[in-house]
Amino acid sequence: MDNNFNFDYIWTVYQKEKQTNKLTLIPKQFYEDVNTYVSNINKANLEGQSLIANTLQTIDLIISSRKRKIIIYAAYSKPLPQPIPDEERDFYSKLLNLIKSYNIYNKESSINTEIKPMLKVVIAVPEITLPSGNHIGPLDKDQLINVEDEDDRRYLETNKICTKP
């Protein structure tokens, strides 16, 4: 850990991080240095719990800001600036793997390859409500219609409103 690593340095990192949408460069061992710094404050009991609380709160703000930025970098497959702490590189890698493995469009399930045969209207009917809640009609005799819902198809055939052509 660098001798200049103190709360003022952490605060400066936070201020720089807050001012830009890009990841600022921080030392590769930044989080290790933070842990060492907090541990040293604890041991020395220098300025008490308020310094530790302020340090941890500032670190949380830095981490939150950097996580949001890393998520954006991963979403656009944009390379991270170097050097980057290992913890952030691992987070970025996991995000990239998740993004690449998640397929929003599943070809097998989203395309219905089954084409249902049309139904032929046997009698003229005004608009009717089908079991699915869909409305159909008015229908003319001998008109061909396409009904996707299986319960609706069964209803129309059972009530002799339609037949398979």
How much of the residues is beta strand, in percent? Answer: 5-15%
Low-confidence stretches: none
Strand order of the largest sheet: 4-1-5
Number of domains: 2
Instruction: Give the name of the CATH architecture of the largest domain.
Output: Up-down Bundle
Mean pLDDT: 84
Helix amount, in percent?
40-55%
**Helix run count:** 6
The top-level CATH class of the largest domain is Mainly Alpha
| Helix and strand composition category | mainly alpha
* Main sheet overview: 3 strands, antiparallel
- The CATH topology of the largest domain corresponds to Methane Monooxygenase Hydroxylase, Chain G, domain 1
Shape: rod-shaped
Terminal residue distance: 83 Å
Q: What oligomerization state is this entry in?
A: single chain
Description:
It is built from 6 helices and 5 strands, in the order αααααββββαβ. It is mainly α and 165 residues long. It folds into 2 domains: 7-101, Methane Monooxygenase Hydroxylase, Chain G, domain 1 (Up-down Bundle), CATH 1.20.58; 119-163. A hairpin with a 5-residue loop joins strand 2 and strand 3. Helix 1 (7-18) packs parallel to helix 3 (49-75), helix 2 runs antiparallel to helix 3 (49-75) and helix 3 (49-75) packs parallel to helix 4 (86-101). The mean pLDDT is 84.
